[in-house]
Amino acid sequence: MKDTREKILQKLLDAESVVYFTGAGISAESGIATFRGAGGIWNKLKPEELANFDAFLRNPDMVWEWYQYRRSVLKDAQPNAAHLAIAQSENIFQNVTVVTQNVDNLHKRAGSTNIYELHGNIERNFCVRCHTYYNLPDVPFENKAPKCECGGLIRPDVVWFGEMLPQEIFSASEDAAMNCDVMFIIGTSAVVYPAARIPGLARRHGAYLIEINIEPTEISYTVDASLMGKAGEILPGLLNDVKSRK
Ligand code: BV8
Ligand code: ZN
Asked: Tens digit of pLDDT for each residue in 71-85?
C-alpha cells in the first residue's frame, strides 16, 4: 500500500537533503519528446541506429542531423512548472541535488544550481580527435557533421550506448543518493543503466522514495509513494504545501 499525501508531506517537512532523479518525462510538458513513452522518439527510430558512436562513424551527417533537430526543438522550449518548482525548492530544503539523465539543459535554465548530468549535455560538442570543445552557438546550425581545425569530426557531448558515464559525475550522484533523506524519481522509465541503479542505492541507504510518473514503471513496486500524473501538475502543488507548512 503506498503512503498517503499526509505521510509524504511529513517526510518532506523532516527532510534536509533532497535528490531529484529525473528523466525525459520531466521535459515532456516543455514539448520535448520522450524516448520510450507514447510518441517517444525511440518508437520510430532505434537508439542503436542513432545514439551510439559506431552509428556516428558510419553516418555522421545522419546522427548530427538528429541532434540538430533536437536542438532546434530545444531552442523554442522553456523549462516547465516541474523544472521551476525543483529550482525554487532550493529555498525550502537545506540540500537540493538534481541528478538528471536528460541532456536538454532545462534544469539549468530553470535556475537549479546543483545538477549532475549523467548523460552529458546536447549544447556541448567536442572533436573526436583532439577533444577541442565547440559549444553552441559556436557550432553552425547546419545538418552536416562539422569538422574541427585538426580535421577530426565534431560530436555531441552526450553519453551514447556502450559509452562510460562521466566517472566523477556518476560517483557524486551515488554519494548524493546515499546521503539523501528523500529522493524524487520523476519522468523516467528507469531502464537505462547504470543510471537506473541510483534509486535503488538511495533506498538501500534509507531514503524515502517518491515516484512521479504518468504510468507505472519498473521501479514503481520499490518506491514508498507513487504519484500518478504529470510532473508539472503534481510537483508544484506538493512543494508549495511543504513550503506553507515550514
Ligand atoms: C554503458 C544520451 C557500458 C544520448 C542516452 C543491451 C544492449 C546494449 C546496451 C545494454 C544492454 N543492456 C544494458 C545495456 C547498457 C545500456 C542500457 O542500459 N541499455 C538499456 C536501454 C537496456 N547502457 C549503456 O549503454 C550506458 N553505458 O553501459 O556503458 C560500459 C561499461 C564499461 C566500459 C565501457 C562501457 C550508456 C547509457 C546512456 C545512453 N544515452 N541518452 C541522447 O540523449 O541522445 S539514453 C536515453 O535514455 C536518455 O539519456 C534518457 O534520459 C535515458 C533514459 O530514458 P528516460 O529518461 O527514462 O526516458 P523514457 O522516454 O525512457 O521514459 C520517460 C518516462 O517519463 C516514462 O516513464 C513516461 O511515462 C514518463 N512521462 C512522460 N511524460 C511525463 C512523464 N512523467 C511525468 N510527467 C510527464 N508529463
Ligand atoms: Zn580536433
From this structure: 989 999 999 999 999
